[in-house]
Amino acid sequence: MTQRSSPWLGFALRRLTGLVTIFLALLVVSFLIVQLIPGDPAAGIAGANADLADIARVRHELRLDRPVWERFVDYVGDVFSGHLGTSFMYRQPVETIIFNRLPFTATIALAGIVIVLLVAIPLGMIVGVLTRGGRRTWLDTAFGVVTGFLDAVPGYIMASFLVVTFAVGIGVVPLYPPAYTPRFAAQSFVLPIASIVIGPICTVSRVVRRETAVVLDNDYMRTAQGWRLPAHKRYVRWALPNLLTTTLTLSGLILTGMIGGAIIIESVFALPGLGSGIIKAILDRDYPVIQGMVIVIGMIAAIVNLLVDVLLGLIDQRTLGGSHVSA
Predict the structure, then answer these.
(1) What's the chain's Rg over C-alpha atoms?
(2) pLDDT at position 225, please?
(3) Rounded distance, CA 130 to CA 135, Å?
């Protein structure tokens, strides 16, 4: 019998290697993708009345007249030294621009993730318990129809619907600002968060309902019911941990997609976050800002997936991919 190292050590090494690989891939992709954007940023910065000499001067100042491989080497060196470059349009460090915009995106994404998990898991479990064994088929059908319909609605359409319904000065029931205003900062996040969580709540709750039905059909759950254990013990202590593995695995993919959805939602509600920032940078051909935001958004998505994997490992160490003991 030989005692092997903790599965957490192997998990940490694999995930660290994965994060490094993702970072390097983002580094290459973020540089190459800006080369595909049509147009010359120097011409836009020089102005409509600029001649060829003015444009050439601006290109030299921005170091755009150098070979691509030289620019890539400089870019990699700057990133590894902690500097993401200087914005072409604002003449500010990209880190400053990202730092000013990150709280808006982080607020939407983190609040959305928490709300999805807090609402979808109990909702799916409740419906799963009430409809177990073919009971209340009307509830099962209604739940499937409603969640399926809401999940099929794109985020930007849901955002527009919420604005028309609940926005002050526009909506039928005016409750919240239609766009971000510093005076009503907290209220300005209500509609964006609502529009980004409705679809994922429906998706995750349907998965939880299905997994609840499977778990409740297991022998140990029927035995617990035969022993007349209290309902909260059966469902919370025994059923919940067993259905969370599959649920969180899928939820990690869905929650990562929410970060991408936040980009569109920010544009609808005029939130000055990373999403609206990267769209404006693309229109302005502001290469350093595009590259910096691609790296930051990509790493945020990778870290969210990592946190989901850690949570899965805490619930069930078998998901870590290692074994404890070997002969």
Answers:
(1) 25
(2) 65
(3) 7
